[in-house]
Amino acid sequence: MKYNPRVSSSRRKCRKAHFTAPSSVRRILMSAPLSADLRNKYNVRSVPVRKDDEVQVVRGTYKGREGKVVQVYRKKWVIHIERITREKVNGSTVNVGINPSKVVITKLKLDKDRKALLDRKAKGRAADKAKGKFTVEDVAAAAGGPSLQEVD
Question: Of residues 51 and 129, which shows the higher confidence score?
Fold first, then answer.
């Protein structure tokens, strides 16, 4: 369901917005999920892929292969990973483009901006977890009556 009235649900407009997106927006769209241990460590699900991150391919022909990101090719919506190459007919080797959603980040290249991003995203997730959760005691206190334990 659409919540924001300024966002179109027209297929034509959505595709146009996607394929004509500027580089700054493509950065966000080219995000990859974090591995399970990184997700637990930082309390963040996914981050935009960056040049020196280490990733593991989880789908496709190169499934299971790991390597360092050599290039984030935003114009073509792909990332190039070291050691994932193919040989052209003339004998030269070229990097194979991998969709960032088909990899998991296993090691992050951290600098102060990336740390700030992780802290900001983790803080937002922590706020969401606490939101809307009521315990039995909270409900009983709001009702003004005895709690369920006292009734038994």
Answer: 51
Burial 37-56 (b: 16+ CB within 10 A, else e): ebeeebbbeebbbbeebbbb
pLDDT for 103 beyond 80:
yes
Neighbours of 96 (CB within 10 A): 15
DSSP line for 89-131: TTS-EEEEEE-GGGEEEEE----HHHHHHHHHHHHHHHHHHHT
Task: Give the tokens for residue 144.
Answer: 């003004």
pLDDT in tens, 53-74: 999 999 999 999 999 999 999 9
How far is Cα of residue 29 from the mean position of the Cα atoms in its chain?
9
Q: What count of other Cβ atoms lies within 10 Å of the Cβ of residue 105?
A: 24
Residues in Cβ contact with 111 at an 8 Å cutoff, skipping those fewer than 6 apart? none
